Amino acid sequence: MSELSPDKKQPDNGSSASSHTLLEGRLGYQLETALLVRALTHRSYAYENGGLPTNERLEFLGDSVLGLVVTDTLYRTHPDLPEGQLAKLRAAVVNSRALAEVGRGLELGSFIRLGRGEEGTGGRDKASILADTLEAVIGAVYLDQGLGAASELVHRLFDPLIEKSSNLGAGLDWKTSLQELTAAESLGVPEYLVTETGPDHEKTFTAAARVGGVSYGTGTGRSKKEAEQQAAESAWRAIKAAAEERATAERTAVGAPDEAEAGAEAVAQVRAQADSETGAGAEPGVEGAADGEGATDSPSASPPSSPAAPAPEERPPGEPAGA
Fold first, then answer.
1. Sheet containing 191-197: which strands, arranged edge to edge?
2. pLDDT tens digits for 47-61?
3. Taking a C-beta distance cutoff of 8 angstroms, is the pair 228, 175 a contact?
4. Residues with Cβ within 8 Å of residue 291, at least 6 apart in sequence
5. Which residue is catalytic, options 118, 135, 144, 226?
């Protein structure tokens, strides 16, 4: 680590050596001043001040370092997840919105060197500027302190987010999850109606998630994308809860006939057994009537016919009749 020379401690755009020290304290590393200053220099400031070096090259480097550390962590902590799911997890951690939230936690916006235009339009809290600057700072730590230090910084800043994302499931991308859920429920394709309020440098976006003409949830955010994600989350939870309630009701409805059928079957068995026992006692009489039908000794049979006349006696030839 190089010494911080006095000429590198001149204040720039409201930043000073003391403010840099404050940021370094939050990062946990003391960096070479010129390198840290460059990491905090947005292109708008550079263009307004004669084409100074910007933080874009450091941003490029830091993005790769961040991606490597996060990918390595996910690979090692989730040995059974397929590549597609690992990619979703990484995208949930390494994205502009997530990086901006980490940057806000460091109050990074107060240290960025911005041009007057960006300053006047709320650039210190823009997600894209915060995310790019955080990546540039990670790149600076890597150059000044090495991969081990940069990896430790990434773990300290992002491990909570990695753990949270691992438990999100559908929340990895609420808009995609909502579309998958509405397709499964045959509800149609979600659409988002977005409105905005406030001045240009401090806009607030409100989104309503509608499916089949019905509004299922709303969300607000500093950007259109953030508002839509929140609206999608709200809609997903509402539709999921309704689907689970419906499934529970259907299971209950299916279970009731089953119980009724079981009861009816038991009653039928008892009746069949009773009928069988009754039929066993009456069976001989029935069979006797059938066997005696048409018999001459039956009381109901018709009287017997008269005895047949005796056959005439045979006479010797030539003997007159009546002899």
1. 191-197, 204-211, 214-221
2. 999 889 999 999 999
3. yes
4. none
5. 135
pLDDT (tens digit per residue) in 196-210: 998 877 789 999 999
Q: Confirm if 125 and 110 have CB atoms less than 8 A apart.
A: no
Q: What is the pTM of this model?
A: 0.60
Q: Is 185 a catalytic residue?
A: no
Distance CA 241, CA 14 (A): 51
Q: List, in sequence order, every beta strand (DSSP E) within the chain.
A: 191-197, 204-211, 214-221
Two structure tokens written together for 103: 């940057």
pLDDT tens-digit series, residues 124-182: 999 999 999 999 999 999 999 999 999 999 999 999 989 888 776 666 778 888 998 99
**Residue for token digits 């939230």?**
101
**DSSP per-residue letters across 295-307:** -TTSTTSPPPPPP
* DSSP code of residue 217: E
Q: What contacts 34, CB < 8 A, 6 or more positions away?
A: 8
144 noted as active-site residue:
no
In which residue are the tokens 């009754």 written? 278
- Which of these, 43, 141, 45, 133, lies nearest to 96 by C-alpha position? 133
Determine which one of 32, 63, 144, 233 is catalytic.
63
- Residue 65: its pLDDT value, please? 98
